[in-house]
Model the fold of this input.
Amino acid sequence: MATATKKTASKTTGKSTAHASSSGAGGGSSGSEKSSRSGSTMGMPSFDDLSKMIGKFKMPGIDVSAIVESQRKDLEALAEANRQAYEGIKALAQRRNEILQEALQQWQEAMKDATGPDAMQKNADRAKKAVQKAIENYRELAEMEADSRKKAWKVLQDRFQENLGHLQKMLRPKS
Done:
């Protein structure tokens, strides 16, 4: 028993050491070799490769291809949600930059009129307008952020509902 455990441990250690040395810097294999071996640029097998590997193991009553397809759809939904979130953050950052540029332009104009007999009144009016504009801008940015979050979350909710429906269909007693 102890020798079997040692052999298994040494095999596992040997595999992880070999994997670590090939994936580290200067590991000896190029990215194209990894890509051609695994079917993916990230060193992971493609869903087609995975379904072929799992298909070799015949399991009665289990539709392996349906499981693989479901997982593929889950990952696609996750990727789409991430894309939606990224686009939302990108638009939010762009709008924040526009707001900052507008504020700087207004500040420069205010500095031109900083002196004069009615400067106090103009500055008070500008300050009031600036506060109102800041509130409007904050509201706009908050709405953009909420909308972006809602879109990304909707993609995941839709996929969850699809999975739930599929699970309910599988669990129904066959007549």
About this structure: The longest helix spans residues 119-171.
